Amino acid sequence: MNSKLVIINVVRWFILLLFQILLLRSMSFYNLANPFIYVLFLLLLPFSTPNLLLYLIAFITGLTIDAFYDTYGVHTAACVVLVFVRILFISVSVSRDNFDEPEPTLGNMGFKWFLLYASLCIFSHHIILFFLETFRLTEFNYTLVRSLLSSIFTLFIVLLIEFIFYNRKAR
Amino acid sequence: MRNLWIFLNRYNAFFFFIIFFTLGIVLTIKNNAYQRSVTLNSTNKVVGDAYTNLNVVKRYLNLSTVNDSLARENALLKTKVLALQNIDTAKDITLRDTSGVAQYTYLSARVVKNSIALRNNIITINRGSADGIAGGMPVISSGNGIVGYIRDVSEHFATIRSLLHKDTYISVNIKKNKAVGSLIWGDGNFDYRKAYIKDVPNHFKLSMGDTVITSNFSSFPAGIPVGKVSNTGIAKGDNFKLIEVVLFNDFSALQYVYVIKNKFAKEQQALEAKVPDEQ
CA–CA distance from A79 to each of A121, B130, B146 (Å)? Predict the structure, then answer.
């Protein structure tokens, strides 16, 4: 992995986490949809990252968010699930021979692929997150609605950010 | 052995997932347990300091509101002092000496971090064990109304399990007829301005606008105003009413809170611990 990618990802980690903690923590629609944009960092990690490193990064990112949200372990578990879904999806949909793109961004992979990738990862992350946060099944319907709406909200902002920094690689 | 290694390596994503996900779940369950020995939350020095420094601008912008609320509180207290001064003590037959038994002492604290948008909301304040704060102490807001209970304590910070949390139950009274119920938040209502009282027996007659206060059974001092009844008796189909309450306390604009130290808390707990578990 070259050093430029490492620096970009470190900077992205700090910016997205600050954005999440400072601004998005106090943002919600009628307590139904809370955005968790920091997952974009995990979505955009390079293809060449080894699996163990992916899990470690997800674990540490989750723990950091947990410390600031006072929800010890909830985000950690959700991030690990996201990475699992990410690895599965990439192994199914991207062939190993032509890894010419370094990162799974919208500009590199196209809108259709990215939309499916992001929505699958975000939904699995949010459903684990909200069910672990509620930690009881009596509010099942409410939690389900909440995780769905939050996923849509997060997906919307993720796509927005991706379109703002959209640059198709010159071939 | 070599085959096993190849097998593990081939499906390493799955095995790593199992390991890390189990770790995450264990942490979650530990955090949900009553006895927590976790320090990685906002009582942590780094996280607490980060929140303190990041809130400077917000604190500055809110100064005028805080000032107004303090002035109002001062006026209220002065009125009370005047009323006490005008008591004709000569007329009273017995005077109770209360100077030695100030059961409750208040400690003011600044809110460092607050949230209202989550299912379980935690507030962080800038006081900790160095100021004599311990877990379970009740917290009220500087204006009107209750906030929650102290959850975790570090040396200079403490977190409050806000009323807006799934595990918070506070015993309250309807002021008019002393009906006792427990105040909860959640279960379908996730508006930070409202809460529910459950377990009030059906035979109590209530009307809109009845004041709700803390009861004798909570660890709050009795009689602290909580809110006003806004919907009496949502039918649940059993012997108890579910009452909607509009809270006096505005959780979205919480700036200063009071932590209440109960001088006799330990004594009471020690006494109650002697009662054998009779259930």
Answer: 9, 36, 35
Nearest CA in chain B to A30: B191
Kindly report, residue by residue over A77-117, the tens digit of the pLDDT: 999 999 999 999 988 887 766 566 778 888 878 888 889 99
Half-sphere exposure of A8 (CA within 13 A, CB side): 12
Architecture per CATH, domain A3-164, reads as Orthogonal Bundle (1.10)
- Domain containing residue B214: 170-253
Query: Does A73 sit within 8 Å of B26, measured CB to CB?
Result: yes
Q: How far is the CA of B23 from the CAs of A25, A62, B38, B198, in angstroms?
A: 25, 12, 14, 36
User: How does pLDDT run across B62-85, given as a tens digit for each residue?
Assistant: 888 888 888 888 888 888 887 777
Which is more confidently placed, A90 or B58? A90
Searching chain A, which residue's CA lies closest to the CA of residue B151? A70
pLDDT of residue B100: 61
Domain boundaries, chain A: 3-164
Query: Could you tell me if A109 and A43 are in contact, meaning their C-beta atoms sit under 8 angstroms apart?
Result: no
Alpha helix ranges (H) inside chain A: 3-22, 39-43, 51-69, 74-93, 106-109, 111-134, 140-164
Within a domain: B126: no
**pLDDT recorded at residue B142:** 75
Find the length of chain A: 171
Is there a domain that residue B75 lies in? no
The pLDDT score that the predictor gives to residue B33 is 66
CATH number at residue B247: 2.40.10.350
Domain membership of residue B125 (yes or no) is no
Please indicate whether, in this complex, the C-beta atoms of B120 and A133 are within 8 angstroms of each other.
Answer: yes
Residue B239 domain-assigned (yes or no) = yes
Contacts of B51 in chain A (CB under 8 A): 68
Residue type (1 letter), B256 = Y
Query: E strands within chain B?
Result: 104-113, 122-125, 138-141, 146-153, 158-162, 170-174, 180-184, 194-201, 211-214, 225-234, 240-247, 256-262
Instruction: Determine which of A70, A92, A135 to mutate to test the interface with B (most B C-beta atoms within 10 Å).
Output: A70
